[in-house]
């Protein structure tokens, strides 16, 4: 007998109910999606890779920029059209009214990190099967990333108030996880075959501040909830550990000896955002980039292999051509390895919207092109120095034509690749030594000797 469903009627299913998930936004949102799925799998739900096969679809949205909001609304629309039973969560879920204005048919809207609320909404839409298959959940949880790398979230929220950012109002002030929780999760992931961990948060260097850097026990030793202690402990796992979203506090200097010793990867993702003191002040960010240049030089003395990745914003209100000159000169001096650049977009609710001196779109575009051209030359020069050297790479994908890998200087999704053309004798997750043969401004080509 078939049952007629209205779009909002709960489904009762004989077999395990299936949930689809569309995960938008940053790696932090991806970790939230993984947590939601882990919880649902523990209750007996299955994960559907297609709209068709799902009894309901969760859309984990991003609400950081207006373009991300538009992408989120379109993803919700697509899920409604393809499946019809949609639960919205994530950053944009904090603004239920604008979601419901565009898509009144969504079943529920929950905000960021409201795991309980998302799971409750799923229960309401698709009740769990009577007997949860608890043993179906792998010990390391459900990961949406390939098996050989995973994201490790150490805290939520942020105590800063950068004028262009609404994350603190969406996600609240810093809330750190106890060190033992983080380390136990990392250890499980390593045991399950993960070879590379990306440490993420909104502000990785502030880790533990809110809990007084409280110590907790892991592997029989007390570990402080402090980024240097955490990095040191993660170094015991014998896998690649990569630091993201590091705000440039003075104690970041203490991570460099750990990198030089090989405990964590020689990689720092520090979003500098700008270099001009005037713009940084308007952004409410630390504004002493002269000092930062000295620190970068010192970091490279301690750890010559250090790769620095950063992001910048051009076209911030009040930014002048002189500010962009300053930024490009700073960039040439800093010689960062990997750089992303955004054109400023006013985000609803951000303090920067009150600032005068909006930069016209075509000027933003011209400044962005100038910035990218400057960085491309720097990046090409730095990568060319690697030709002829031996480096370790981790393999991400292999097909009939060869393998795509990454070096220690390349985070997945955001940095470059190392192409091993014709090398099919490796598998994803393998870490192998290669000799670099060729470089362009983003990627390397290498062979195994
Ligand atoms: S440090 Fe990052 S998350 Fe915190 S307010 Fe600034 S931009 Fe936003």
UniProtKB/TrEMBL annotation:
<dbReference type="GO" id="GO:0005829">
    <property type="term" value="C:cytosol"/>
</dbReference>
<dbReference type="InterPro" id="IPR020612">
    <property type="entry name" value="Methylthiotransferase_CS"/>
</dbReference>
<keyword id="KW-0004">4Fe-4S</keyword>
<keyword id="KW-0808">Transferase</keyword>
<dbReference type="GO" id="GO:0006400">
    <property type="term" value="P:tRNA modification"/>
</dbReference>
<feature type="binding site">
    <location>
        <position position="62"/>
    </location>
    <ligand>
        <name>[4Fe-4S] cluster 1</name>
    </ligand>
</feature>
<keyword id="KW-0408">Iron</keyword>
<keyword id="KW-0963">Cytoplasm</keyword>
<dbReference type="InterPro" id="IPR058240">
    <property type="entry name" value="rSAM_sf"/>
</dbReference>
<dbReference type="GO" id="GO:0051539">
    <property type="term" value="F:4 iron, 4 sulfur cluster binding"/>
</dbReference>
<feature type="domain" description="TRAM">
    <location>
        <begin position="384"/>
        <end position="449"/>
    </location>
</feature>
<dbReference type="Pfam" id="PF04055">
    <property type="entry name" value="Radical_SAM"/>
</dbReference>
<comment type="function">
    <text>Catalyzes the methylthiolation of an aspartic acid residue of ribosomal protein uS12.</text>
</comment>
<dbReference type="Pfam" id="PF18693">
    <property type="entry name" value="TRAM_2"/>
</dbReference>
<feature type="binding site">
    <location>
        <position position="162"/>
    </location>
    <ligand>
        <name>[4Fe-4S] cluster 2</name>
    </ligand>
</feature>
<dbReference type="InterPro" id="IPR005840">
    <property type="entry name" value="Ribosomal_uS12_MeSTrfase_RimO"/>
</dbReference>
<dbReference type="InterPro" id="IPR013848">
    <property type="entry name" value="Methylthiotransferase_N"/>
</dbReference>
<feature type="binding site">
    <location>
        <position position="91"/>
    </location>
    <ligand>
        <name>[4Fe-4S] cluster 1</name>
    </ligand>
</feature>
<feature type="binding site">
    <location>
        <position position="165"/>
    </location>
    <ligand>
        <name>[4Fe-4S] cluster 2</name>
    </ligand>
</feature>
<dbReference type="Pfam" id="PF00919">
    <property type="entry name" value="UPF0004"/>
</dbReference>
<feature type="binding site">
    <location>
        <position position="158"/>
    </location>
    <ligand>
        <name>[4Fe-4S] cluster 2</name>
    </ligand>
</feature>
<feature type="binding site">
    <location>
        <position position="26"/>
    </location>
    <ligand>
        <name>[4Fe-4S] cluster 1</name>
    </ligand>
</feature>
<feature type="domain" description="MTTase N-terminal">
    <location>
        <begin position="17"/>
        <end position="127"/>
    </location>
</feature>
<keyword id="KW-0411">Iron-sulfur</keyword>
<protein>
    <recommendedName>
        <fullName>Ribosomal protein uS12 methylthiotransferase RimO</fullName>
        <ecNumber>2.8.4.4</ecNumber>
    </recommendedName>
</protein>
<dbReference type="InterPro" id="IPR005839">
    <property type="entry name" value="Methylthiotransferase"/>
</dbReference>
<dbReference type="GO" id="GO:0046872">
    <property type="term" value="F:metal ion binding"/>
</dbReference>
<keyword id="KW-0479">Metal-binding</keyword>
<keyword id="KW-0949">S-adenosyl-L-methionine</keyword>
<dbReference type="InterPro" id="IPR023404">
    <property type="entry name" value="rSAM_horseshoe"/>
</dbReference>
<dbReference type="InterPro" id="IPR012340">
    <property type="entry name" value="NA-bd_OB-fold"/>
</dbReference>
<dbReference type="InterPro" id="IPR006638">
    <property type="entry name" value="Elp3/MiaA/NifB-like_rSAM"/>
</dbReference>
<dbReference type="InterPro" id="IPR038135">
    <property type="entry name" value="Methylthiotransferase_N_sf"/>
</dbReference>
<feature type="domain" description="Radical SAM core">
    <location>
        <begin position="144"/>
        <end position="381"/>
    </location>
</feature>
<comment type="similarity">
    <text>Belongs to the methylthiotransferase family. RimO subfamily.</text>
</comment>
<dbReference type="GO" id="GO:0103039">
    <property type="term" value="F:protein methylthiotransferase activity"/>
</dbReference>
<dbReference type="InterPro" id="IPR007197">
    <property type="entry name" value="rSAM"/>
</dbReference>
<dbReference type="InterPro" id="IPR002792">
    <property type="entry name" value="TRAM_dom"/>
</dbReference>
<dbReference type="GO" id="GO:0035599">
    <property type="term" value="F:aspartic acid methylthiotransferase activity"/>
</dbReference>
């Amino acid at each position: 007998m078939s049952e007629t469903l209205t779009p909002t009627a709960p489904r009762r299913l004989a077999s395990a109910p299936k949930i689809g998930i569309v995960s938008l936004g940053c790696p932090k949102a991806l970790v939230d999606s993984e947590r939601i799925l882990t919880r649902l799998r523990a209750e007996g739900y299955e994960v559907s890779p297609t709209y068709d096969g799902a009894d309901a679809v969760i859309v984990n949205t991003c609400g950081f920029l207006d373009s991300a909001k538009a992408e989120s609304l379109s993803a919700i629309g697509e899920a409604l059209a393809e499946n019809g039973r949609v639960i919205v969560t994530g950053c944009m879920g904090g603004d239920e009214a604008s979601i419901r204005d565009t898509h009144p048919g969504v079943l529920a809207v929950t905000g960021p990190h409201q795991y309980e609320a998302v799971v409750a909404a799923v229960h309401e839409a698709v009740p769990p099967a009577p007997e949860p298959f608890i043993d179906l959940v792998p010990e390391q949880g459900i990961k949406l990333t390939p098996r050989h790398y995973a994201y490790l979230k150490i805290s939520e929220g942020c105590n800063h108030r950068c004028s262009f950012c609404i994350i603190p109002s969406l996600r609240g002030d810093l809330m750190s996880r106890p060190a033992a929780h983080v380390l136990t999760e990392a250890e499980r992931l390593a045991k399950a075959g993960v070879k590379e961990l990306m440490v993420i948060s909104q502000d990785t260097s502030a880790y533990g501040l809110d809990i007084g850097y409280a110590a907790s026990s892991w592997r029989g030793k007390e570990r402080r909830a402090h980024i240097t202690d955490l990095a040191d402990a993660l170094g015991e796992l014998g896998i690649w550990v990569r630091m993201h979203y590091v705000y440039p506090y003075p104690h970041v200097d203490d991570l460099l000896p750990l990198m030089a010793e090989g405990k964590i990867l020689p990689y720092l993702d520090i979003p500098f955002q700008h270099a001009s003191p005037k713009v940084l002040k308007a952004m409410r960010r630390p504004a002493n980039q002269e000092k930062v240049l000295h620190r970068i030089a010192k970091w490279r003395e301690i750890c010559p292999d250090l790769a620095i990745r950063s992001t910048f914003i051009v076209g911030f209100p009040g930014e002048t051509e002189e500010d962009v000159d300053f930024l490009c000169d700073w960039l040439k001096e800093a010689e960062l390895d990997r750089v992303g650049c955004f054109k400023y977009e006013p985000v609803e609710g951000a303090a920067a919207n009150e600032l005068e001196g909006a930069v016209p779109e075509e000027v933003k575009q011209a400044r962005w092109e100038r910035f990218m051209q400057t960085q491309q030359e720097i990046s090409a020069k730095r990568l060319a120095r690697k030709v002829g050297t031996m480096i370790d790479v981790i393999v991400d994908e292999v097909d009939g034509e060869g393998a795509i890998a990454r070096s220690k200087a390349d985070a997945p999704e955001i940095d470059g690749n190392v192409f091993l053309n014709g090398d099919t004798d490796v598998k994803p997750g393998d870490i192998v030594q290669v000799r670099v043969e060729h470089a362009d401004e983003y990627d390397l080509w290498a062979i195994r000797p």
